[in-house]
Amino acid sequence: MPKVTYLLTNMVTGDEYIGVTADKMGLKQRCTHHKSRAKKGRHNHLKLYANINEYGWDNFTARVLCGGDDEEYLVWLMKPTLNDCWNGRKTPEHVKRAAAESHHKPVRCVETGEVYESITAAGKAAGVSAHAISNHLRGKTETSAGHHWKYA
User: Fold this and answer.
1) CA nearest 67: which of 17, 120, 132, 129?
2) Domains of the chain and any CATH numbers
3) H or E element at residue 61
4) pLDDT tens, residue by residue, 51-93
5) Quick check: 115 and 106 in contact, CB under 8 A?
6) CB neighbours of residue 80 within 10 Å
7) How far apart are alpha carbons 56 and 54 in whole angstroms?
């Protein structure tokens, strides 16, 4: 199974955790691992597991954010409260600037010729996340929303 980056959200507190899995059984199996490890108090996701134990697994939702391993970028972008595995691993400033700037550049849908003011605007119009279009622009996917995209 290819890797996916996912989001766990505590529906009571709004706390979030971003992770990556390549589990052959998918996100459902990865969630089963988190639930089991939280009960045992094992592994290094201490904030996440303490949160699961305090509020209960039934108060969490899980969803795939994107295909591939974009955990570090999404942790930097979304700043989830339950990720504590990035100690000492910082995203370089030039990468942060490039990511922020890329979301404000105009993009064009190759098939329709329509130009959007930003990746975010294009994603909203196409019904996908800005990250999905960004992945395509960075060459990680063949298409996004069934289209090809280029910076305008």
Assistant:
1) 132
2) 4-78 (3.40.1440.10), 93-151 (1.10.10)
3) strand 60-67
4) 999 999 999 999 999 888 888 788 878 888 888 655 444 555 6
5) yes
6) 19
7) 6
Q: Per the structure block, which two tokens stand in for 72?
A: 């570090």
Contact 70, 56 (CB under 8 A): no
Overall residue count recorded for the chain in this entry: 152
CA 67 to CA 65: how far, in whole Å? 7
Q: Which of 71, 28, 66 is nearest to 145 (CA)?
A: 66
- Dihedral sign, Cα of residue 111, residue 112, residue 115, residue 120: negative
| Per-residue pLDDT, 113 | 95
Position 139 scores a pLDDT of 81
Tokens of 86: 């990035």
- Taking the C-alpha atoms of residue 125 and residue 116, their distance in angstroms, rounded to an integer, is 9
* H/E stretch holding 76: helix 71-78
